[in-house]
Amino acid sequence: MKPVLKIESLKKYYGKSKTRTRALNGMTFQVMPGEFLGIMGSSGSGKSTLLNCIATVTRPDGGTITMNDRPIHTLKGKALSDYRGKEIGYLFQNFELLDHLTGRENILLPLSLHGVPEKESRERLEELSSYLEVKDVLHKFPSQMSGGQKQRIAAARALILKPGLILADEPTGALDSKNAKTLMEKLSGLNQKEHATILMVTHDSNAASYCKRILFIQDGVIFHELRRDLPTETWQEFYTRILKVMAQLGGGSANVL
């Protein structure tokens, strides 16, 4: 089985030579189809920089990023637009919904931009809004929604084009405990039932416990890896293992779930 995403010797530096910060210092890993991979680390460890490089928001200073055997740093024009719009779905911490559009319009916007037929758009909207339990707020504007409703609308928008990879950047960071748990259960359900491939950056050990594998990064490199391989391992046991590694990194848990 070939990886969906391959990161090799990825580097990203900020500042000049004497004060240079190594946000990514030669990172290498792969994401396999249907995997739910978590990236954890303390503040400033390079988590968001990594996601931004994959999303082509930030250009790396070295190394390669390959999506389905295609190096993304060579993409331009329509190919780059298609990659950003169709091959990856981005779920932000602060929702990033358009205030002047309803929930329905926010979700359907990517379909409109990429010319998906109306019938197919309606079918996808019905399926996702039902699964994410947002059908009752599709007619509302973001200002009329709760934080959890906004994030599930944003999740539907990220998923509506059925991307090969979902990038989630601290998706529970702006949510209370109930809504954080609901969102993580929905993402985990998509991973298990639909084999959605998810790469999630988080500082929260509870959210990370839904992952199948976790990479811990520190100073721009991978410090440790945890896998949830044992079928007998409980959620609490995996969560405890995560906390132990985070303690070594000098981080903890937001304990929001």
How would you describe this protein?
- The protein has 257 residues and is of the alpha/beta class.
- The chain has a single domain (5-249), classed as P-loop containing nucleotide triphosphate hydrolases (Rossmann fold), CATH 3.40.50.
- It has helices spanning 47-54, 77-87, 103-113, 118-131, 147-159, 177-193, 205-208, 235-249; strands at residues 5-14, 21-31, 36-40, 62-67, 70-71, 88-91, 165-169, 198-201, 213-218, 221-227.
- α3 (103-113) runs parallel beside α5.
- The chain is globular.
- Residues 252-257 have low confidence and may be disordered.
What are the key terms here?
single chain; 257 residues; alpha/beta; Rossmann fold; six-stranded mixed β-sheet; four-stranded antiparallel β-sheet; 8 helices; disordered C terminus
Number of domains: 1
Strand content: 15-25%
The CATH class turns out to be: Alpha Beta
Q: How is the largest sheet built, in terms of strand order?
A: 6-7-8-3-9-10
Number of helices: 8
Class by helix and strand content? alpha/beta
Radius of gyration, CA atoms, in whole angstroms: 18 Å
Describe the structure concisely for a colleague:
The chain is an alpha/beta fold and 257 residues long. 36% of the residues lie in helices and 23% in strands.
What's the SSE blueprint?
Layout: E1 5-14, E2 21-31, E3 36-40, H1 47-54, E4 62-67, E5 70-71, H2 77-87, E6 88-91, H3 103-113, H4 118-131, H5 147-159, E7 165-169, H6 177-193, E8 198-201, H7 205-208, E9 213-218, E10 221-227, H8 235-249
Parallel strand pairs: 3-8, 3-9, 6-7, 7-8
Antiparallel strand pairs: 1-2, 1-4, 4-5, 9-10
